[in-house]
């Protein structure tokens, strides 16, 4: 009996020693090094997808500047979570998140003389919208008359200038005619080429659309370009009876 107790005690002590040694081997003797962030699978992010009955083609993302690909960054804006901030000079759109981060997207912006800046709200939003060019755009390009509001606009589709989604910007309760929208021209991202609207890759506008409710605050900043490292008050909700088509600058 006594012998068994001695053996049991010896086993307990030996087991404790092994356990303590194992735990000591797991303990950090210096600064804990976090595992590296998993690399973003851009081939999947910008691959082909079916949406709303349309086959959206893959984006040749390797041909786009890496700073313009969708990525989570430290928020540089200081705005409240849920706010959209467009940095037109650097061609970025930020969706401010909690915990000091923001989702950053590359965008195309309006060329000189066509851009809009200010603060507004995303009054309503639309999947696969029709496009209605404004009269001044038709006057510059009479071929667009067939897409006028009188003629029913351009039907949704892959070649529609508004792409897969559109977010409609209102200021002081009035439609600015400017949108954040998708676009089939992937090579316009990072450039000033539009008639004032904020262009995004179709894959990116679909992602943003799902994150942004109607009534969200948006700030479009017109300012000199600044160096960028690569790596909100309550607002009203959109009226339920908003029309599903609107004249748009594109």
Describe this structure in words.
By secondary structure, the protein is of the alpha+beta class. Helices cover 18% and strands 26% of the residues. The chain is built from 4 helices and 13 strands. The strands form 3 sheets. A 9-stranded mixed sheet has the order 3-6-5-4-13-8-9-10-12, with helices on one face. Strands 1-2 form a two-stranded antiparallel ribbon. The protein has a two-stranded parallel ribbon with strand order 7-11. A hairpin with a 2-residue loop joins strand 9 and strand 10 (174-183). The protein is globular, with a radius of gyration of 26 Å. Mean pLDDT is 80; it is low at 1-36 and 227-246.
Morphology call: globular
Estimate the helix proportion, in percent: 10-25%
Instruction: Calculate the mean pLDDT score and round it.
Output: 80
Distance between the termini: 91 Å
Low-confidence stretches: 1-36, 227-246
Overall strand count? 13
- Structural class by sheet pairing and helices: alpha+beta
What oligomeric assembly is this protein in?
single chain
Spell out the helices and strands N to C: HHEEEEEEEEHEEEEHE
Largest sheet: 9 strands, mixed
Number of helices: 4
Spatial arrangement of strands, main beta sheet: 3-6-5-4-13-8-9-10-12
Spatial extent as radius of gyration: 26 Å
Q: What percentage of the residues does DSSP assign to strands (E)?
A: 25-35%
């Amino acid at each position: 009996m006594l012998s068994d107790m001695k053996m049991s005690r010896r086993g307990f002590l030996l087991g404790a020693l092994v356990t303590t040694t194992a735990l000591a081997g797991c303990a950090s003797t210096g600064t804990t090094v976090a595992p590296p962030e998993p690399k973003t699978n851009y081939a999947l992010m910008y691959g082909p997808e079916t949406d709303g009955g349309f086959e959206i083609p893959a984006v040749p993302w390797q041909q786009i500047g890496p700073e313009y690909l969708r990525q989570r960054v430290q928020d540089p804006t200081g705005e409240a979570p849920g706010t959209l901030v467009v940095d037109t000079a650097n061609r970025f759109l930020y969706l401010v998140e909690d915990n000091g981060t923001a989702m950053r997207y590359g965008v195309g912006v309006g060329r000189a003389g066509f851009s809009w800046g200010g603060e507004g709200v995303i009054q309503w939003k639309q999947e696969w919208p029709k496009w209605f060019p404004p009269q001044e755009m038709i006057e510059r390009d009479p071929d667009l008359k067939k897409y006028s509001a009188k003629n029913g606009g351009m039907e949704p589709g892959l070649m529609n200038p508004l792409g897969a989604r559109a977010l409609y910007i209102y200021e002081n309760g009035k439609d600015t005619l400017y949108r954040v929208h998708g676009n089939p021209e992937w090579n316009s991202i990072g450039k000033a080429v539009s008639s004032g609207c904020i262009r995004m890759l179709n894959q990116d506008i679909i992602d943003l659309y799902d994150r942004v409710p109607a009534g969200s605050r948006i700030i479009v900043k017109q300012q000199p370009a600044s160096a960028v490292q690569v790596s909100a008050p309550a607002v009203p909700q959109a009226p339920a009876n908003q029309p599903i088509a609107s004249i748009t600058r594109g």
